[in-house]
Each structure stands twice: as structure tokens, then as C-alpha cells.
Amino acid sequence: MENIWYMAEKNPDYELANDNIVFWGHEHPDHFPTVTVNDLPVPDTVQQYVLAQQRRHCSTGKQRPVAARALLGKEQRRLHLSAK
Q1: What pLDDT sits at residue 19?
Q2: How far, rounded to the nearest angstrom, does the alpha carbon of residue 35 sit from its chain's CA centroid?
């Protein structure tokens, strides 16, 4: 089975190397996050490059930075968090 990643040209929530959605598994479906579905297949060479970088990063034992959107005041912002 071949992995196929999708990307989007106009999705402000999309970031290729950090495209995870986290929510509680016991959450009622009515409370699941609303997402924009990406519709452009990522070329295999790009996918292989990102996977190689992730493997390299994992082998260092360091925690990867995490990005998330947050509402600060009345403005949506993208936060990048990393361990010290």
C-alpha cells in the first residue's frame, strides 16, 4: 500500500511537516474539529524528503516543535512551540 499525502494551496491551517490534528478519542462527534480537506497530492519525492528529515530528527532523541492555531484576543495566530 502506498502512502499518499495531500497538500493545499489555500489552506491557512496546512503545514507539510506538521499536519496533525489532536483531539480526545472519547469526544462526541459533534465536537470533532472542522477541517479543510487538502486536495493536491504531494509528489513522492517531497514525501520521501520529509519522511527522511523526520527520521533523522527522531534519531537525535529531541522533541519536534509543534505548531497550532490559537485565538489570541480576536485574532487567529499560528503558534510554534518547542521544548527548551
Answers
A1: 64
A2: 12
Instruction: Label residue 61 left, alpha or beta by phi (over 0 means left) and psi (-120 to 50 means alpha).
Output: left
**Amino acid (1-letter code) at residue 50:** V
pTM for the whole thing?
A: 0.53
For the ranges 8-12, 33-37, 46-50, 79-83, the maximum mean pLDDT occurs at: 46-50
Tell me the C-alpha distance between 32 and 20, whole Å: 14
Residues composing the chain: 84
The radius of gyration of the chain's CA atoms, rounded to the nearest angstrom, is 15
Residue 40 to residues 1, 9, 17, 26, 35, Cα–Cα distance (Å): 19, 8, 15, 31, 15
* Distance from C-alpha of 68 to C-alpha of 15, rounded to nearest angstrom: 10
Please, are residues 19 and 61 in contact by the beta-carbon 8 Å criterion? no
Domain ranges of the chain: 6-81
